[in-house]
User: Fold Nitrate reductase from Halioglobus maricola.
Amino acid sequence: MKECNTTCPYCGVGCGVRAEVEGAKVIKVVGDGDHPANAGRLCVKGTALAETLGDEGRLLHPQLAGERVSWNHAIDTIATKIRQTIETHGPESIAMYLSGQLLSEDYYVANKLMKGFLGSANVDTNSRLCMSSAVAAHKRAFGEDIVPCTYADLDTCDLLVMVGSNAAWTHPVVYQRIVAAKKDNPDKRIVVIDPRRTATCDIADLHLQIKPGSDAYVFSGLLNHLQNNSAIDEEYVARHTRGLPDTLAAIGDLDMDTVAESCGLDPIELNRFYSWYANTDRTVTMFSQGVKQSATGTDKCNAIINCHLATGRIGKSGAGPFSITGQPNAMGGREVGGLANQLAAHMDFSPAEIDRVQRFWEAPDMIDAPGLKAVDLFQAAADGKIKFLWIMATNPAVSLPDSDMVKRALERCEFVVVSDCTEQTDTATHADLLLPAAPWGEKDGTVTNSERVISRQRKLVAPTGEARPDWQIITDVAQRLGLKQYFDYPNPAAVFREHAALSGFENEGSRAFDIGALAQLSDEEYANMEPIRWPVRTNDDDSEPLADGRFYTADGRAKIVPLVPELPQAQNDITVNTGRLRDQWHSMTRTGRVPRLSQHRDFFSISVNPEDAAKAGLVEGDLAQLENSLGMVRGLVMLDPGIARGQSFIPIHWSEQFSTLGKVSQLIPAVTDPVSGQPQSKFSCANIAAVPVACWGMVFSKDPLQAEGIDYWSRIAVKGGYLTIIADGRSPARVAEFLKQALADKKQSVSAYSDAEHGDLREVSSNNGRISHALFLHPDRNALPLRAWLSTLADQTPGWELLAGFSSERPDTGKMICSCWEVGETEIVTAIAAGASSVEALGDALKCGTQCGSCIPELKAILYSEDEQIRNAG
Ligand SMILES: Nc1nc2c(c(=O)[nH]1)N[C@H]1C(S)=C(S)[C@@H](COP(=O)(O)OP(=O)(O)OC[C@H]3O[C@@H](n4cnc5c(=O)[nH]c(N)nc54)[C@H](O)[C@@H]3O)O[C@H]1N2
Ligand SMILES: Nc1nc2c(c(=O)[nH]1)N[C@H]1C(S)=C(S)[C@@H](COP(=O)(O)OP(=O)(O)OC[C@H]3O[C@@H](n4cnc5c(=O)[nH]c(N)nc54)[C@H](O)[C@@H]3O)O[C@H]1N2
Ligand code: SF4
Ligand SMILES: [Mo]
Assistant:
């Protein structure tokens, strides 16, 4: 057995992971106690990493038009298509769409090939959907895309404002760190700004439940308040900034009542926030997708940054605007220059910068202007202008707005290459050529996390099938195009050295992103590289950027950016808010395969306010439909009083692989921020209606059930197979008839029970003594067996007995709360009734909350509501 340190491939916290490898298998992962990001902690997704490796669902060989081909043939085909397309239609007709989940080495070679050697700047990334408003705001304010904070600032600040961030679920290890810091310093105040009451609000001293999209009012009003209450740091403003007078003039006399009214807030609460902010020097504002994913996202980020600049609360311990990154290497991608409006290594498109990069690369075919940003790029493909598109490590058919437009783009584009580790994704379905990429654990490289720490991801096991690392695939194509001398990398270490050298090239302090000192690493030093925060300059000056009040603008001053707040207009019944669940990662290509990660939330659901639901005649668990002019989604109703009237929340994780009509992008228009190009993924409008259901069903199957044609279905992985819920307008008998074919070839020996009068149909089939499927249909969903029991079917003996009395077989543990120890709500409520009155006591009794801690907010909520019930009863 060997032990190896690596980095988690999910969120931008960038936790260090220690993997135990036995032979060709990763048998266990634990947190790396020495890593600065997590000091040993992992959340439930990180803990389950070993379970995502292996063959299941993996793309194992290159496939051209659905047929297996050799790598040699695949590389040849790409090189030929690129050459032909450029010859016939010009370099603007080719594009690459990359991802913040690539490693910096992958990203570097892709960017270099496109921008220096193929003459196309059409290389953009899913970071456009994720970080680009923060990037644009940093550049406007600081002159360079610099995140001036580290996690230590979250420990030391006295006021933490969390805007549009549900860190309890999305950056769990950082959230636990904040929880611990608040415990150490009970005077530390936390304000959460979010239209939804989220798990993160659990630690908030104040939750400002604003109207969707109204953040710029809050922060413009705040700047005004700071000005009117002598809270501006006049000296800092005079020495290090420009633009404050213009900005105050643009805001005008935006008073507290107007702000409160525009944001739907209580003026007393707003005032409380403003005075805390005015009076707390050590303030950090941590912001995330609630502000970035907006048609005015860049302005919102600048509205936040403006308040920090005006108070001089930046570049010092415990203070600063902190855009926390989403993907594991969203930050590294920005360093490499993977966005279409960046060139490379934090350089843009001035003639001097183009010249510098051209000389460094010795590039023959250098671009001279930015390329198309993601949404425009797909629109251009839909319009027939992009003829060759290479998509890598992202699933745009699910994640870009306006799925129909994206589908048209993928269909119309003449040649689509998709590099992925998963065989079946909504995007891969449209590929002409599919390339098997080596995922986490099978490849080597580096990632940069939210606090600028560069860490190694290390290869733990050999690639599955014929999978290859992305950097190598791109390099092979470059070499096949006759560019060997420029792309002659023996290993990722060589790519990293070149990337580091470019960052230091003719830098002399002109760019904060400088890791020039790492350009000399030997292969062995790269292999053993410890996590390191940039800058890492050759002159040993590794002082934190912006600490000296020097900015990377022409005059060295930061810009306080004038802006006028705007509100998105609601049409239709209900606004659509979208975001993440605790235990799933994006389109679930990896997390969706791990049974225990589907326990917290199982089937595709839509959360709405209970009163809105009642108005539409819906109760918990009913089937609802949200529809607008773009499309429709259907999901089970979840009642959530934390969602304000007139709003809804739809998780982003479901694709056509896991549900029907569960893709929220079908409701999101392709509206983008004019500065950053980031789509407004958090805001849309739709009408809500109940969907009549005559038949509910649960199907356990060894293989995924093909349920196409059923009104609603949604599937999770369970031990030994899959569990699919179905709902349909037809009677159980008709649905059984319809499913016959899907289940037909799996039937070996079948036992069935049918009570036709009540529409109660049950059937179990087996093969060699193992269940191959079990089907339960009924007009009343409460008459179906419980999920907990259905999830154990793989271990049960098939036969008659299984079809009777199932609901009493095993007590339902209720909604899954703690995924680490598999503890359900019913058990927790029982333990509370038996006297467990704190999170710690519940942990002692049931172990819940004692591993990753992600469920602690929910444990507290249950403790609170049980306590309230007791009080009410008393
Ligand atoms: N479990 C899990 N963790 C993840 C990921 C994952 O897929 N799963 N993905 C990672 C990635 S790539 C990213 S980018 C991050 C995202 O991390 P977050 O930004 O924290 O996550 P989201 O759930 O997308 O959205 C955050 C919050 O924005 C709120 N919001 C919506 N509209 C508004 C508004 O107008 N104003 C304000 N103030 N708030 C609003 C939503 O209600 C939501 O609670 O998560 C990372 N971590
Ligand atoms: N409505 C709405 N839309 C959103 C968001 C939202 O909040 N609301 N959030 C946006 C944000 S912030 C983000 S980051 C995006 C995320 O959206 P996507 O990037 O589309 O989501 P993923 O499912 O992570 O896609 C990654 C793909 O890469 C594959 N993969 C994994 N590892 C590797 C590898 O090493 N190499 C290769 N070649 N492939 C690999 C996976 O199997 C998967 O298919 O979604 C965006 N879309
Ligand atoms: S918080 Fe969880 S998902 Fe994020 S890096 Fe750490 S272990 Fe991975
Ligand atoms: Mo993201």
Residues 99-101, 126, 129-130, 289, 293, 326-327, 392-396, 398-399, 419-422, 425, 437, 439, 470, 578-579, 586-587, 589, 652, 664-665, 668, 681 surround MGD (ligand 2) (CB under 6 Å). The two ends are 58 Å apart (CA to CA). Residues 71-89 form the longest helix (19 residues). The mean pLDDT is 94.
